[in-house]
Design goal:
160 residues, PH-domain like, 3 domains, 9 strands, alpha+beta
């Protein structure tokens, strides 16, 4: 009998349907979806602005301390650089979607994090950081309500 490595359910269980196979060949099961978490554009823009402000302060301060008479270029360079970065990565970053099921949190890259593996959940600048018992760290980026995401994952952990 084939068992899911994480759920410990067999392929013959009534509520378990084959979903895909793990790299080691073990069957992973399809479980009911609870929620989907996708990046929020307003949060993405806010994070880019914060990065630009911090970058501007550091670059401008460095140029000023070095005695450069054109220290103000640090402000322009920081904002231009972060704006270009944001433009090029926005579609990709905002397209990532995490899925919460009864037994796992599924990442956009296909990594399934078992709810029993989750040790810590915390909010970091509009994102949710998941730390597993093995020390692996995952980031659900650009969430409009990270506290709500944490509450939903904690609720699923309590029900599991």
């Amino acid at each position: 009998m084939t068992y899911c490595a994480r759920c410990k359910k067999s392929a013959n269980d009534v509520d378990a349907k084959p979903r895909k196979h793990a790299p080691n060949g073990e069957m992973l099961m399809d479980t009911p979806e609870i929620a989907r978490f996708k990046g929020n554009k307003a949060v993405f823009i806010r994070v880019q602005v914060v990065m630009a402000l911090v970058g501007a302060a550091l670059i401008t301060g460095g140029l000023y301390l070095a005695g450069n008479p054109d220290w103000w270029i640090g402000i322009l360079g920081s904002f231009a650089g972060i704006a270009m970065r944001g433009y090029y990565i926005a579609d990709e970053q905002l397209g990532f979607e995490w899925v919460l099921t009864d037994t796992h949190v599924n990442s956009p890259s296909g990594r399934d994090i078992g709810l029993g593996e989750i040790k810590t959940l915390r909010s970091v600048l509009g994102s949710v950081q998941i730390i597993t018992s093995d020390g692996e760290k995952h980031l659900i980026k650009y969430q409009a309500a990270p506290e709500k995401v944490i509450a939903e994952i904690n609720g699923a952990i309590a029900r599991a």
